Amino acid sequence: MASIDIAAIRKNYGSIAVLHGVDLAxxxxxxxxxxxxxxxxxxxxxxxxxxLEEISAGEIQIGGQRVNDLEPKDRDIAMVFQSYALYPHMTxxxxxxxxxxxxxxxxxxxxxxxxxxxxxxxxxxxxxRRPRALSGGQRQRVAMGRAIVRAPKAFLFDEPLSNLxxxxxETMRGEIKRLHQSLGATSIYxxxxxxEAMTLADRIVAMNAGLVQQVGSPLDLYDRPANLFVAxxxxxxxxxxxxxxxxxxxxxxxxxxxxxIPLGRAYACANGAPVTLGIRxxxxxxxxxxxxxAPVDLVEPTGFGTILHLRALGADLKAFTLERKTAQVxxxxxxxxxxxxxHLFDAEGARIA
Length: 353
What we know:
By secondary structure, this protein is α+β, with helices and mostly antiparallel strands. The chain has 2 domains: 4-232, Rossmann fold; 237-345, CATH 2.40.50.140. 24% of the residues lie in helices and 32% in strands. The protein contains 8 helices and 20 strands. The chain has helices spanning 42-50, 92-102, 107-121, 136-148, 166-183, 194-200, 218-223, 228-233, and strands at residues 4-13, 16-26, 31-35, 57-62, 65-66, 77-80, 154-158, 187-191, 203-208, 211-216, 240-247, 252-254, 260-262, 274-279, 285-286, 292-301, 306-312, 315-321, 332-336, 343-345. The chain has a 6-stranded mixed β-sheet with strand order 6-7-8-3-9-10, with helices on both faces. Strands 13-12-11-14-20 form a 5-stranded antiparallel β-sheet. It is globular and about 75 Å long.
């Protein structure tokens, strides 16, 4: 396996800039997830690493070797696509061994690698089937097996689970994570699904509009989002956000109708400055008789808990509670925002320390 170093990477399509100078160092054996909305540049960056897109500016190194001008076949990487890209006329074994047969590897070596990969992925009984006789999850396992037998320097995953249903996605997430733990392979995984990013990654790279917004462990991004984009994108349901001003003398957030929310500490922010207050739904305390009055607009039972849609501080607010029997639509409850759970962002959207 190998490290991957990305320095000042830019991508332009004519006069349209897609990536605006991306810097990223991926350690040997690390599982890194590129996450962000459609059009943020994450798949373009992955394809540039693979050699499927030209680099407009900057440099990419794989294992210390500059690969800007290398053909994809010479970069020693394996890519797993969303579309599986299996040969319909070949068996599972034929698809998995194809790259080795192109290299004229010894038959014994091919048989051994295919057998080992099939055992790892639970495909031993499917080796003689063709893709049309496989389920979506089995086809994706074959695509991963084809990558494994090559023993490349790095694995690149381009939204490999987006064609699968929700239950199968959950199963395959677990299989991919176990596979990485078993192989210790350097892996870059692209997704727009923040649940996939949180559950799979050693580190997440949050991207938006061709720029890296934050890099860190899943809990780094969840607990200390660098800006409003990361705060809103990571987490489901999304973080609640309220506009207002900061009162330095009282250490409070001044919200709609002059409601004052204690912050518990001083922030590096000018008195009276416009700010945004954030709090995650699971940190909102519902009921108890004290707090801010909040009419209930909608109740979503999830089985595990309940999501309440409320109105507070002049905006919509979501609260997640483990209680099943809680406030009903049309009622008014109360909410409390614990100071230790609050996040504060400046007028430009950056986190305030």
